[in-house]
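Quality-control log, excerpt.
Job 1 of 2 completed; input and output follow.
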Amino acid sequence: MNFKFILFIPLIEIILFILLGDFLGFFNVIFLIMLTGFIGFFLIKSDIRLNDLSELVKEPNEWVYKKIAGILLIIPGFLTDFLGILLLFKELRKVVWKILIKNNTSRKKSEKKNIDVIDAEYKDLDEK
């Protein structure tokens, strides 16, 4: 994943605010951002009971995905809200995970191919 994209997220968020503000209206956009923020707070809130603890131990990924989705929903902006909503659906998580793994494995293979190996002999000059 190219981390330079992270620098453009605020610019993309501002552009989406302007475009959706023109399309939906100012108050509707503010309402949607506040609504997703409240949903994010609800997802982050931890009410773990003993019954839920056994479920958490079986599938910790579900808990982690919900917390990450909650954080993304709290951040004001439509791009982060869209990414947070994507993380709430199991099927979409699998697709995103496969894409991330595919990109990382292909990058690692290409990095391994570009490595130059220098063969050398070692001789300790302090020994006599």
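Job 2 of 2 completed; input and output follow.
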Amino acid sequence: MKRESKVWGERWLIRQDSTHAVSFLKLNEGYECSWHKHQSKYNLFVVLSGRIGIMTEQFDGKRLVGLLPGNCFTTKPGEYHKFVAFEDSEIIEEMYVEYCESDIERSNTGGKSAEMLPKIGGA
């Protein structure tokens, strides 16, 4: 896991590939990240402990959403946003490209497995 110190706390990069990145963030009370946007990434924030706010800017103005442990919030590509820690907090952040349910291509239909179960189950 790669660890980075940030002005607002610490970031541990858990996993990253060409379509997403998952990080664990420790946020220091009273600090915020920069006002920014992503060209093609969604940003999902899941609060594990503490209390944070996410500010976004949309066509109708800015809004602030308060989040507590168990809450989550997603920003869209092109949407300016920033987070602020109202107290020391821990969050999971996932950045990902748009999910498209129709991108699946099936080569057969699923059903009861006649091939794999005996091999895996030891029979």
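Post-run check on job 2. The CA atoms of residues 49 and 69 lie 5 Å apart.
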